[in-house]
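In pairs, describe these two lines:
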Amino acid sequence: MKAALTAEKLNKYFHEPEEFRVLQDISFSINEGEFVPIIGKSGCGKSTLLYLLSTLDTDYKGMITINGQQVTGLSQNELAAFRNRHIGFVFQFHFLLPEFTALENVMLPALKLGRWSKAEIEERALQQLRQLEMEHFAHQLSGKLSGGQQQRVAIARALINEPMIIMADEPTGNLDSSNTKLVFDIFSRLAHEKNIAVLAVTHDLDFAKQADHVIEMKDGHIVSPNA
């Protein structure tokens, strides 16, 4: 199997109010088509790790490779372009633009990327909404949708540029149990049917039960890379 992401000896320090080593020699890899949660108690460093892996935080020591490309050391402009093309993001808060329709929100990353015509992007966005059973809400303002519906639109938006990895930070943190299960099922299907790597920080242990393997963290260390 091809590695979607490799982290080698990642170390991260916070310097205020005093120096603190929040990540310590983190090394692991995730393959294409794997669904991998990062679990651990609050403050263990899992969200900090995700932000390093997502290239949103570049202040670290070590090496990160995504889709065969070493991203450590790239400029901010290069990283922004790389993220838009290769990484899909899903957060606890959906960050949809409420004055835009569901369809318009899903189209935004593809319009920025510029690989396809606007008509092609619209069709691709409808296709993503269709596979998430949200096609009937395509022309509804995102601000009028329920929390579960908004999160499904956010997942469709994350998929529009055909990323090879999805990174999610507490993607079910604001959802009820039925919508939580729905999001879990979507991620599992994306990994196993679409061959997308899914890396997700979560407090929900039910999420971990459905995974290919689990990365468990404690005090800035990985304590269980293959639970």
Notes: DSSP finds seven helices and ten strands in the chain. The helical segments are 46-53, 76-86, 102-113, 118-131, 147-159, 177-194, 205-209. The mean pLDDT is 89. The beta strands are 3-14, 20-31, 35-39, 61-66, 69-70, 87-91, 165-169, 197-201, 215-218, 221-224.
